[in-house]
Write a structure and sequence with these properties.
The complex is a heterodimer.
Chain A: E1 5-13, E2 22-31, E3 36-40, H1 47-55, E4 62-67, E5 70-71, E6 79-82, H2 94-104, H3 109-122, H4 138-150, E7 156-160, H5 168-185, E8 188-193, H6 196-202, E9 205-210, E10 215-221, H7 233-251
Parallel strand pairs in A: 3-8, 3-9, 6-7, 7-8
Antiparallel strand pairs in A: 1-2, 1-4, 4-5, 9-10
Helix pairs in contact in A: 2-3, 2-4, 3-4, 4-5, 6-7
Chain B: H1 7-31, H2 37-61, H3 68-81, H4 83-115, H5 117-132, H6 138-146, H7 150-174, H8 178-186, H9 192-228, H10 241-251, H11 255-286
Helix pairs in contact in B: 1-2, 1-9, 1-11, 3-11, 4-5, 4-7, 4-9, 4-11, 5-7, 6-7, 7-9, 8-9, 9-10, 9-11, 10-11
The chains are: A alpha/beta, B mainly alpha.
Chain lengths: ~270, ~300
């Protein structure tokens, strides 16, 4: 259950008031069905904008976005987002949070209960089913968010820096669990992060974005065996290569902001 | 209390005395949820006794102010006569009906305004003006247009409490975290589903504050109506807040008035304990706002 994602010469502006600034320009990217692709880049390079486009929350000012051969025109349950903040509903139990999407999709009660129970077991939250989000640790919350997304069996899973607010041990465990879930379900996953090692550890390839406006400056294939962890020497070595691409862009001034102070630079 | 006292002046001492007691109770109820009933009840009792003592001292120095003992005797007399039950019953029924209308209408319209910016821009300034104006100013208008009846007062109370509830609901809707709305959209909620399952629960704490405000506005308006015409007292029976006020005005004897104030205080305290404080507590518990380490 997965779909290919194709972006063709996409340009998009930053949302909001004031003079229009391009967040993305000339982005062409093709992701195969069932692929796990990392997208890495400095903050403000349009990574989240790219996910919003695929999710259908916004439409591009130029270019096209296709998922499974169909043009994206709005949000849909075939493309589900996992956010940096867990974004669980604080008034609902873990069980109700995980079942939220299924309920909106019109899944019958009995089937929904079964699916929710199954996914809670997969992410190790069976005992926490009746707790509310505030009673969980950061790692457990993000697990609940993962279960909520996977329970819908989406074609494409969009992950917007989902682990960046977690402590290192929780993050390392979730890296392994995410790779397991991905291999089990075969979902197409677009994983956005500013952490280069995380990008290398998770992605089958790493797409490197640069800012001002965001565009693809390179791609690194990762052929390492799974499951990978961020500390492994090979991951670190490849991460250095990716970092090199970002540094070159920085020195060429490509990633410098177009407006603002003259000595401004983008930190990675 | 002289006849020239404004409606607001007549009511505010009652609210001023309830709030410290209510705060003390709320603080204890949340910190020692596992504690015994006795432990919970003790501070309520202590605060009550302190207030009674202060009142007794004040009554000893002021001739016109009846003492707690005299008031208690009067309360006993009112209970035997059925006047107590009559006042309590009338206030309960009237407030229950009017507040229900105000709450349902106010929350529904508030959600609508919160969701539609054009409506919000058009209506909010007028609602803010209506909320700022004492609702009791409409009572004479309603009395002339609709006649001096309990219905006419009911219309003023019901509609008068709405702007505050609408505005609080609107603000609560506007301050729902955008992330939750994005999450709701991502997971297939749209239009009414989004409103019902994401916006409404997220806005509930703010809506509750609006309902409490609406309740106190409604109650003030009720008493103002009683001072104006006493329609709730019923024409023949003479057993209502309005008749009590009229009698105290004529005789200058405040014993029955103080007894009636006690009845109203007991009523508001019951409503707070049984309704508002409970709902607030449940909302806080389900959202994890109780263990935050702050005194509640």
């Amino acid at each position: 259950m997965s779909s290919p994602v194709t972006l063709t010469d996409v340009a998009q502006q930053f949302a909001g008031h004031g003079p229009a600034r391009l967040a993305l320009d000339g982005v062409t990217l093709s992701i195969e069905a069932g692929e796990l692709v990392s997208i890495v880049g400095p903050s403000g390079c349009g990574k989240s904008t790219l996910l919003d486009l695929v999710a259908g929350h916004t439409r591009p000012v130029r270019g096209t976005v296709d998922v499974g051969g169909t043009r994206v025109t709005g949000p849909g349950l075939d493309r589900v987002m996992v956010f940096q903040e867990h974004a669980l509903f604080p008034w609902a139990s873990v069980r109700d949070n995980v079942g939220f999407g299924l309920k909106n999709a019109g899944v019958p009660d009995a089937e929904r209960e079964a699916t929710v129970t199954q996914w809670l077991a997969k992410v190790g939250l069976t005992d926490a089913a009746e707790l509310h989000p505030h009673q969980l640790s950061g790692g457990m919350r993000q697990r609940a968010a993962l279960a909520r997304a996977f329970a819908l069996r989406p074609q494409v899973l969009l992950m917007d820096e989902p682990f960046s607010a977690l402590d290192a041990p929780s993050r390392d465990r979730l890296h392994v669990e995410l790779q397991d879930l991905w291999q089990e379900t075969g979902t197409t996953i677009i994983f956005v992060t500013h952490n280069v090692r995380e990008a290398v550890a998770l992605g089958s390839r790493v797409v490197v974005l640069s800012s001002g406006p965001g565009h693809i400056i390179g791609e690194v294939a990762v052929g390492l065996q799974r499951p990978r962890v961020v500390e492994s020497d090979r991951v670190v070595a490849l991460a250095r290569e990716v970092r090199g691409l970002l540094d070159v862009a920085d020195q060429l001034g490509i990633s410098a902001p177009r407006s603002g102070s003259e000595d401004g630079h983008v930190s990675i | 209390m002289s006849a020239s006292d404004s409606p607001r002046g007549a009511v505010s001492p009652a609210t001023a005395t309830t709030s410290p007691a209510a705060d003390a109770v709320a603080g204890l109820a949340s910190t020692s949820a596992r504690g015994s009933r006795w432990k919970k009840g003790l501070p309520i009792l202590v605060t009550g006794l302190v207030i009674l003592a202060l009142w007794a001292v004040a009554a000893a120095f002021v001739d016109t102010l009846p003492s707690p003992a005299e008031t208690a005797r009067e309360l006993g007399r009112m209970a035997r006569d059925g006047e107590l039950a009559s006042i309590f019953g009338r206030v309960t029924v009237f407030m229950a009906v009017c507040f229900s209308i105000a709450a349902v209408g106010g929350v529904a319209l508030g959600l609508l305004i919160g969701a539609r910016p054009a409506l919000d821009r058009g209506l909010s300034p007028y609602l803010a003006a209506l909320q700022g104006m004492p609702t009791s100013m409409w009572i004479p208008v309603a009395a002339v247009v609709l006649g001096t009846s309990a219905w006419s007062l009911g219309v003023v109370v019901s509609i008068g409490a709405m702007p505050a509830i609408m505005l609080a609901t609107r603000s609560a809707v506007k301050s729902v975290p955008p992330l939750l709305i994005r999450a709701g959209r991502t997971f297939g909620a749209d239009g009414r589903t989004l409103m019902r399952h994401v916006v409404l629960p997220a806005a509930l704490p703010g809506i509750m504050t609006g309902l409490e405000l609406g309740w106190s506005i409604a109650f003030r308006c009720l008493v103002a109506g009683e001072i104006f015409s006493g329609v709730l007292s019923g024409s023949g029976s003479g057993t209502g807040i309005g008749s009590v006020i009229a009698r105290s005005r004529e005789t200058g004897d405040l014993t029955e008035m103080m007894a009636t104030i006690m009845i109203v205080l007991a009523f508001t305290m019951l409503v707070d304990r049984l309704l508002f404080a409970r709902v607030h507590h449940r909302l806080r518990v389900s959202r994890g706002l109780v263990d935050a380490g702050l005194p509640h």
